[in-house]
Design goal:
Radius of gyration: 19 Å
Strand content: 25-35%
Structural class: alpha+beta
Shape: globular
CATH superfamily of the largest domain: PPM-type phosphatase domain
Helix content: 10-25%
Order of helices and strands: EEHHEEHHEEEEEHHEEEEEEHE
CATH topology of the largest domain: Phosphatase 2c, domain 1
Number of helices: 7
Distance between the termini: 25 Å
Number of strands: 16
Number of domains: 2
């Protein structure tokens, strides 16, 4: 059996911060927060200054040109490597010509363009999706060392309920024998007790010997959560080589297979992991080439359609996660979303 690789989990408490960017002073606050998140990771002084510059440029763009601008800074740990993700979202005027806006100094009609060229050059990975009159999502990753390649790209965001310091939602992902395993847990309720349940799900998922079927994983996680408040759980095994997804869930974590022209929902059984589970069922689905697999908690509504986002699902998974968090994450609840897409080696 191949070893488990590409292990990643949603940021732990204290490793992520959400910022509303609305005032002129927001850029200075973003710069400070970027340093606070990045400095403990071990970046050099020069690289830390570049991260701060990127955060300042991004926040300045949002404050000047965007509507309802937000930024999230998150630590991303993949295997033994670590990186900082900077994600910006807004509902502003968008950009009709993204490539032109990426050239430094260009801006038209109040669009978010100035500084994007600088950010794209400073970042180790940069992605962007923008629609006129709909808004923009921009992502920039700053890696401490090269990120491992496991055949799948992932992108996820976690946001606690307003007023809470921790989120009860967490996700995790790994690769074994060419199959990507995604898990998302929505701890029952909010706050520290919900967070403890989802942390236990992540721990039990990571400690599994090998990677059995999603149904078997779900059974083990259900047992592991017995001493916690419990929660909703979903597990997907994504086999890009065979073009298939196996899925098992308990409760109201949503699972989707998304194509640019549509989506297919994946079926969960009713119950609360750790407490109530009458049945465990696994379902198998076809995975079209280029499709994105999405898991999200019920802090996001399911009233979104891929057709409303032209070009979004041809971008990286973190951009897709950002757009849906912005538009569908409207419920008063903890929110988490994980997007997974096979990497085309060709």
């Amino acid at each position: 059996m191949d070893p488990v690789t590409g292990w990643t989990a949603g940021p732990a408490p204290g490793e992520s911060v959400w910022l509303r960017i609305e005032e002129a002073s927001s850029a200075a606050g973003a710069r400070r927060q970027a340093a606070a998140i990045a400095a403990p990771l071990g970046f050099s002084a020069q690289r830390l200054a570049e991260i701060q510059l990127a955060a300042t440029e991004a926040a300045t763009n949002l404050q000047r040109h965007a509507v309802q601008g937000e930024m999230v800074l998150s630590t991303v740990r993949t295997g033994d490597s670590v990186a900082l993700d900077l994600v910006c979202m807004d509902t502003g005027p968008g950009m009709a010509d993204v490539s032109r806006s990426l050239r430094d100094g260009h801006t038209t009609g109040g669009t978010l363009g100035v500084g994007l060229g600088t950010i794209s050059r400073l970042a180790d990975a940069f992605d962007l999706h923008s629609l006129p009159d709909r808004g923009t999502v921009m992502t920039a990753r700053f890696a401490l060392e090269p990120q491992p390649e496991g055949g799948y790209a992932t992108g996820g965001l976690i946001r606690p309920l307003l007023g809470e310091e921790v989120s009860g939602d967490r996700f995790a992902f790994c690769v074994s024998e060419g199959v990507g395993y995604a898990m998302l847990c929505d701890g029952l309720g909010h706050g520290p007790l919900a967070a403890r349940a989802s942390e236990e799900a992540v721990r039990a998922f990571r400690d599994l010997p090998g990677r059995p079927s999603p149904e078997a994983i779900l059974r083990r996680l259900h047992a592991a959560l017995a001493g916690t408040r419990g929660g909703a759980l979903a597990v997907a095994a994504i086999d890009a080589g065979r073009g298939s997804v196996a899925f098992a869930g308990l409760g109201n974590v949503a699972g989707w297979i998304v194509r640019p022209d549509g989506r297919q929902g994946m079926i969960s059984a009713p119950g609360i992991a750790g407490h109530q589970a009458r049945t465990f069922r696994e379902h198998r689905y076809t995975l079209p080439a280029g499709a994105t697999v999405l898991l999200h908690s019920d802090g996001l509504t399911d009233r979104w359609k891929p057709a409303d986002y032209p070009g979004l699902f041809s971008r990286g998974p973190l951009v897709a996660a950002g757009a849906l968090m912005r538009d569908a994450g409207v419920r008063r609840d903890d929110r988490a979303i994980l997007a997974v897409k096979a990497v085309d080696d060709g």
